[in-house]
Amino acid sequence: MYQLTAIFNRSCLSDVLLELKERAIEGVTISEVIGKGGVAFDDAGPVELDENIRLDIVVSNELFKEAAKEAIRCNTRDLGKGSGKMWVTPVLEVERIRTGETNEAALRHNDSDERALHFDSYYTAIDTPAS
Ligand SMILES: Nc1ncnc2c1ncn2[C@@H]1O[C@H](COP(=O)(O)OP(=O)(O)OP(=O)(O)O)[C@@H](O)[C@H]1O
Ligand SMILES: [Mg+2]
Fold first, then answer.
1. CA of 75 to the centre of ligand 1 (A)
2. Where are the coiled-coil regions (predicted)?
């Protein structure tokens, strides 16, 4: 299991989320962050920090990790310098709190009741990578 963290401009968020949906990747955490790609403190003191979106996605395998990276890449890289950064960290354990399911089972969305609630959903696949 992997956690993909990506920092990018807020203007790209809708396109990234749509692309993730089209790649059957569900389950995201979104935060508003400030930071700097380069030096954040110079002779004059702290430099002005950039406001960005942070997206965290936990996926169960390599295939979904690469799909998620490409979804972010292709919707953010056209902004030039400062387009953002993303990185991957290993995830040791995941638990769905409601059921106690762990790891891949906790990342799979296969509740029939939930599918019924979202009958007009784009997805028909039983398994999604991180939902
Ligand atoms: N090494 C890092 N560690 C943690 N966060 C980082 C790191 N580098 C960049 N960030 C975060 O990503 C945001 C976007 O970084 P940015 O795109 O400017 O990276 P960069 O390496 O400077 O690339 P570029 O040369 O395109 O500007 C930063 O504002 C910061 O929040
Ligand atoms: Mg930069």
1. 17
2. none
Quote the pLDDT of residue 43: 86
Residue with the larger pLDDT of the pair 79 and 102 = 102
Going from the C-alpha of 45 to that of each of 33, 119, 129, the distances in angstroms are: 20, 55, 44
Q: What percent of the chain has pLDDT over 70?
A: 84
Per-residue pLDDT at 125 exceeds 50 = no
What lies within 8 Å, CB to CB, of 44 at 6+ separation is none
Q: What is the CATH code of the structural domain delimited by 2-37+49-117?
A: 3.30.70.120
Strands (E), 44-129: 45-46, 50-59, 84-90
**Nearest ligand 1 atom, CA 33:** 31
Per-residue model confidence (pLDDT) at position 56 = 98
